[in-house]
Amino acid sequence: MQVNEYKPLIVAFCCNWCSYAGADLAGNNRLNYPADVKIIRVPCSCRVNPMFILRAFQRGADGVIICGCHPGDCHYTSGNYYTRRRMALLFSMLDFLGIERERTRLEWVSAAEGAKFAATMNDFAETVAALGENKRLEDLRCKK
Amino acid sequence: MQKVNRDVLLEKAAAMLDAGEVQAVLGWGAGEFAYDVTPRVFETSDELRADFVWNDFCGANLSKYLVSKTKKLEGKLLVFLKPCDTYSFNQLLTEHRFEREKVYAVAVPCEGMADVQKLKALAGDGISSIESTDSGFSVTTIYDDAPVEVKGADVLLEKCANCKSRKHVAYDELLGDEGEVLDSNRFDEVERIEAMTSEERFAFWQGELSRCIRCNACRDVCPACTCEKCVFDNPNSGAENKAPTTSFEEQMFHVIRAFHVAGRCTDCGECSRVCPQNIPLHLLNRKFIKDINTFYGEYQAGAEEGSRAPLVDYTLEDLEAEDVFKKEAE
Amino acid sequence: MQRIGVFVCWCGSNIAGTVDVQAVSEALKTEPGVVFFTNYQYMCSQAGQDIIIDAVKEHNLTGIVVCSCSPRMHEATFRKTAAAAGLNPYMVEIANIREQCSWVHKDMASGTEKAIILGKAAIAKVNLNAPLTPGESPVTKRALVIGGGIAGIQTALDIADAGFPVDIVETKPTIGGKMAQLDKTFPTLDCAACILTPKMVDVAQNDKIRIFSYSEVQEIKGFVGNFDVTIKKKARFVKEEICTGCGACVEKCPMKKIPNEFNLGMDNRRAIYIPFAQAVPKVATIDPSACNMLKNGKCGVCSKVCTAGAIDYTQKDEFINEKYGAIVVATGFNPISMDKFDEYAYNQSKDVITSLEFERLTNAAGPTQGKLLRPSDLEHPHTIVFVQCVGSRCAACAEKGKEYCSKICCMYTAKHAMLVRDKYPDTEVYVFYIDVRTPGKNFDEFYRRAVEEYGVKYIKGMVGKVTPEGNKLKVRASDLIAGKQLNIDADLVVLAVAIEPDKSARPLATMLTASMDTNDFFTEAHPKLRPVESPTAGVFLSGACQGPKDIPETVSQASAAASKVIGLLVKDKLKGNPCIASANELMCNGCSTCANVCPYGAITYIDKEFPMFDRTMQTRRVAQVNPAVCQGCGACTVACMSGAMDLRGFASSQIIAEVDAICR
Amino acid sequence: MRKCSLSKLTDLFQKINESASLYLPATDNAGGAVYTKWADGVEYLDVLNTVRSPKDFFFPQSENLMEFKLKGKNIEILDIREESEDFVIFGVRACDVKSFEVLDRVFLSEPVDSYYQNRRAHAVIISMACMRPADTCFCTAFGIDAAEPAGDVSAWKTECDLYLKANTEKGAQLLAKLSNLTEECDDSEVSPLQEKIRNIMKKLPLEGISLENFGKGKTKEYFDSPLWTELSEACLGCGTCTFVCPTCQCYDIKDFDTGSGVIRYRCWDSCMYSDFTKMAHGNSRNTQVERFRQRFMHKLVYYPENNDGLFSCVGCGRCLSKCPISMNIVKVMKALGGEKK
Predict the structure, then answer these.
(1) Which of C89, C511, D98, D134 is most exposed, with minimal Cβ within 10 Å?
(2) Rounded to whole angstroms, how far apart are CA atoms D336 and C641?
(3) Residue D28 in contact with residue D34, Cβ under 8 Å?
(4) pLDDT tens digits, residue range B242-268?
(5) Would you call B179 exposed, middle or buried from its count of C-beta atoms within 10 A (0-12, 13-18, 19+)?
(6) Which residue among A23, A32, A39 sits closest to C106, beta carbon to beta carbon?
């Protein structure tokens, strides 16, 4: 095993009702994904403020993924619809500023989709790892 | 250049002040030079006659002042609004930022406002007088005896060069003729940047944003930024920051500010007009406007009072975030 | 600064197998605020919980971090533990090091490293936790049911049976709704009136139930447990409490040519009328648009013949204010308008009728006393064509029809066809359909009987055009299976018209701040798990206002809604979820952005005075979150530009602290 | 006095840059000028004002003061100060040179600001006389002679030559290094130039500004003036004037949590900001009128009161051209009676 292998840091915001439960199910089924993925539980994907996402990048995250209930399944009826608009616009803006578009992602993962959760995290971690370290949205003061 | 004369505005305001129909008038006041016009509240017709200005340098959008000024008055405040200002006026009303009944809005047609910097670049420094002519300006400097003729079209403010509308969308009274919503090329520059590679875009914005000195002029002049307390001034917000300490802080400030006004920004262009570092901040706002139009259908903030901003709305069939770039590619 | 205890669970080998629990607890002990740390085999066991309780007492802990399984598993357990130790239950945070760590990562090194980071994030969050107490609000023990059809009736009866007073508001002069207009019901073919009218009588006789017929809901304020409702009781010009329903006035009324709504205009009623014999309340109503006395003061016959003296031409609309703890919406449905469907010649020929009109035609109390006669010439029809999916499943014709399936048409058309063949075996009956949908108990059997026993001719295909010609209706249709065009000379064409929510639903939804879908059906709080609740707390859905339904489904949903209402009304006080939004008034702009995204209508605005630095007072519009209504999704917190709106339990500062800890 | 042909300007810069980093006004690619580290290809831009003043060299917008490292529950304090390298600033206008004097009074009085002192000690300033002053210039009012700029070395530029005159020991040492590229000439060679500049200054529109009514002892006269309300009416409360000002020297000290420690840094602050000097009890000046008054009273009354009559404005005119609403010190001075009789 290589010692200095680059490990991306990935922050995953998961809504309590679907995606967090989906992540739990992935656990129940012992489905592997990289330990680089760290989950933060939020009540609904619509709780995720763009400021949190930028904050994660500032502090050294290499990728940020937001997971919520599938459209139509939001525990709060409409939260994920707002998330969808907010993130579509935010991601487009980050791309406009020249930030790699692959560093951010929005996925719908239901409580029954443990396999999808694991697959999504594997894919995202791989994508981010291929990009390498986040340089464009980093804050040098936070480098170790 | 302006079709409606200063005296028309002056007499309107003076008459209403004298008749007690309004308590004060929010307009533009004379400065040291022709070009350094300052927004001002006039309380008597004498003050108006002495200092009221309506010329080609009245770029300032007065609508934001209504938030604070109407609260200080018992009676009505007369405000002069250019077409683009009326959009901000509506947006502020939609967000309940002032009471409509405390304002008497007088709409003034606008032929575009001049950018002093552009004017100086063409006419030179040391300006001693500026005369408006039919086609532009006749500028005299202390260095030349003969005045320099400058075409008005060459020195328009960016927001006027890409004017979106000459139509007033809200007023109590209109002076002069009503204009129309225009087909502008305001998204051209956004498209030019979109066409760049990711690396080029990053370099472009690093170059622009690195000039930022965080004077907050863009925010403080913005009619959509009327927060009682801005997140960037609030130590508890997690975003507070006073200086562009690192390039991240520059990005953070401008992305979040643009996001906060997304769907609410009327594209009045004040941010870019006041930026002491000439950062094209309006491009960030226009990027959001363009995306909103592309993703969710045409929407012009402020065009209609009470309209629902796209970020507080949704449809079941909305574009998925992952399809954003496919849509843009179309 | 908090005094935090960290408790790392082994979960037997579930966690300890892949995570070095000793290393985790050692690593976390130097985190800010941590004053106690330990690890144990099963934190959730009584012995494990005792460790926590003892530690809280011994070390004066103010916050607890349990590194264990998912909070979805044991958060509630450890909150109770905290409470048992005398701590606020919301001072507990869980680091999920089982489902999201030990079970998904194979090697000890990375599992341990990640568990430490997750622990740090939980510590960072709990450092910012504040004790939370669920808000309490009283419950008015009375329910309001809007709509007096079978849905409303069933809901009201069930609630009343549980001992709570219920008011029914019905716009028509009588309760009964659509079911009262039906003849027989599928799949049992029992007579609608025979099963409905006893229930209507039950309602009338139940002393817990008040009926506001010929009334509308005017205004709704308040929130779950505390709705404040204004009901407009329209003037019916008859004193309800005096009228005996004898009908003498109706008989003598000279205005005879008023289209009878109950029979869908297929016969006439008088200006003073009782909709049908079993109406509840059985009192007369004067139609002010038809009554001569009310229009020009000439007549007064009804007043003269009324021995009880119930007629009152001066009656005015009356407004009643009442408080309710829960509101049930049961506004039902209507067939859509046929105005835009020229191809079926509905407006050209009296003999093209809707299925609901057909119900009246076959009903013994209907315009033909139950004899099946053509409306145009009162002749017995020999060839009848039933057309299904008229305006339903009509993706291409959204501007006139509906995209959805109206669900009930297949079954009632089978019923109609069967009844015709049963009573009039000489009649030829065609049914044109796209698909026949018969999911339901005994439904498919019922349909097959229509085909197999009664010889109804089912043809897969759509009717293209109906053309009245002489006393016949030329029906041009396609038979998709045979692959040919059909031309049928019909005597009667019956359209299974799509149904849509009642028009009163949309304004009502606005008053209730309840959400609707694009078809104006009320949305459920959750399509699977909370199908009879609206997302707006305290508002429940009964019957077809939520989506097309047949009678058995409607009744079961009505009872389900009633049970939810009862569950609410038995409580003396409502305890809310304490993890809700709240607005910092000093930073609030009053811009309404948050209210725009709130799915529950939990946010209202007040004008509030604030002292200014120049010693004046300034009035500003500020948001107020109703703690009884807010569900804590957090949509408002992101919509709010100034950050005035925050979410307790998931505060921005807490989430940022977690982000920071993870990215450290 | 030394003189150098403009054709040899690049060589001159090259030479200076050999011994110390050279900074000079160059294009900011946005219509303005910014002090840029010279390298081959960087062209000197002879504009009147850079957008940001050269105060940045000594008092940058933000700078780290010290760091704290967290080791377990222990905190370690790190002194991160480093000795500055020598550097040369070329093309500083007379007004901006004067601004250093204003800053020095603040930062070099006891207790001395070691961060500022360190950089100040390592800088050599080459000033530049103003050939084309603008309508916004009013340095004369502060006794500044645009024709005779101060600094370690004074410079004058004509169509073909650059004249250099050392004013200090540091300046002389620098000029000595450049002797191969320059030739000796008489001071009188720049006299016609100076004459011309002084004549232009008299023609400027703001020539009439007078300081007679300001300075020491004027607090009571102006503090309660009703004019402040009117003058500050349109002020947005942004920091543009303070941040482009060469003499504004207020700063805030803040801590940044890096995740593994804390960086204590200071950054420019503006008395126009609502959270300026916020303390535990709140703010000392709660309304924009008070904040606005503070800025101008400080420049025109308080500072001279405490600094032997030296004003804390040098008439560079940056705030005149940059204020979003065109309110500025000249308008304030005129309103308060600051015009020559």
Answers:
(1) C511
(2) 40
(3) yes
(4) 999 999 999 999 999 999 999 999 999
(5) middle
(6) A32
Report phi then psi at C2, rounded to 5.
-75, 160
What is the spatial distance between Cα B100 and Cα B85, in angstroms, rounded to a whole number?
A: 15
pLDDT tens, C581-638?
A: 999 999 999 999 999 999 888 999 999 999 988 788 889 999 999 988 898 999 999 9
Write down which chains contact chain B via at least 3 CB pairs under 8 A: A, C, D
As a whole number of angstroms, the distance between CA A53 and CA A36 comes to: 16
Q: At what angle do helices B247-261 and A79-96 cross, to 10 degrees?
A: 130
Q: What are phi and psi of C221, to 5 degrees?
A: -125, 175
Inform me whether the C-beta atom of residue A49 falls under 8 Å from chain C C-beta atoms. Answer: yes
Nearest 5 degrees, angle CA D96-CA D97-CA D100?
Answer: 95
Query: Do residues C605 and C549 lie in contact, with contact meaning Cβ atoms separated by under 8 Å?
Result: no
In the structure encoding, which two tokens stand for residue D74, read together?
A: 């222990």
Map out the domains of chain D as residue ranges. Answer: 2-335
Model confidence, pTM: 0.82
The answer to whether C257 faces chain A, any CB pair under 8 Å, is: no
Sign (positive/negative) of CA torsion D296, D297, D301, D304? negative
- Domain range list for chain B: 6-113+158-174, 117-152, 188-329
CB B268 within 8 A of CB B223: yes
Cα gap B246→B210, rounded to integer Å: 9
The yes/no answer to whether this complex scores an ipTM above 0.90 is yes
C187 cis-preceded (ω within 30 degrees of 0): yes
Helix (H) or strand (E) holding D94: helix D94-107
Confidence grade of residue B284 (pLDDT, cut at 50, 70, 90):
very high
In the predicted model, is pLDDT for residue C524 greater than 70?
A: yes
Interface of A with D in 43-82 (CB under 8 A): 59-60
- The residue with tokens 């725009």 is C596
| Percentage of residues in chain A having pLDDT higher than 70 | 97
* Chain B contact for D35 (CB, 8 A cutoff): no
| B75's tokens | 């009676």
Q: What is the token pair recorded at D54?
A: 């050269």
Distance between B63 CA and the closest CA of chain A, angstroms: 27
Q: Which residues of D touch C4 (CB under 8 A)?
A: none
Spatial neighbors of A126 by CB under 8 A, at least 6 apart, are none
Q: Bridge-partner residues for A38, per DSSP?
A: A11
Residue type, C649: G
Residues near B321 by beta carbon (within 8 Å), at least 6 away in sequence: A84, A87, A88, A91, A105, A106
Instruction: Count other C-beta atoms under 10 Å from residue C461's C-beta.
Output: 18
The verdict on A28 touching C (C-beta cutoff 8 Å) is yes
User: Is the CB of C664 less than 8 angstroms away from the CB of D73?
Assistant: no
What does CATH list as the number for C4-126?
Answer: 3.40.50
Q: Following DSSP, what letter does each residue of B249-266 receive, concatenated?
A: HHHHHHHHHHHHHTTT--
Q: Two tokens at B310?
A: 């796209």
Residue A101 and residue B322 in contact, taking contact as beta carbons nearer than 8 Å: no
pLDDT category, A144, cuts 50, 70, 90? low
Name the DSSP letter for residue C101.
Answer: I
Integer Cα distance of D50 and D54 in angstroms? 8
* Domains C142-228+317-331+504-514+521-526+537-572 and C235-312 alike in fold: no
C-alpha–C-alpha distance, residues C450 and C469, integer Å: 29
DSSP-assigned states of every residue in C323-345: EESEEEE---EEEPP-TT-GGGT
Was domain C333-500 assigned CATH 3.30.1050.10? no
All structural domains of chain A, each given as residue ranges with its CATH number in brackets, are: 10-142 (3.40.50)
Cα angle: D35, vertex D38, D44; to 5 degrees: 65
Q: Which band of pLDDT confidence, cut at 50, 70 and 90, is reported for residue C137?
A: confident
pLDDT at D340 over 80: no
Report pLDDT for A3: 46
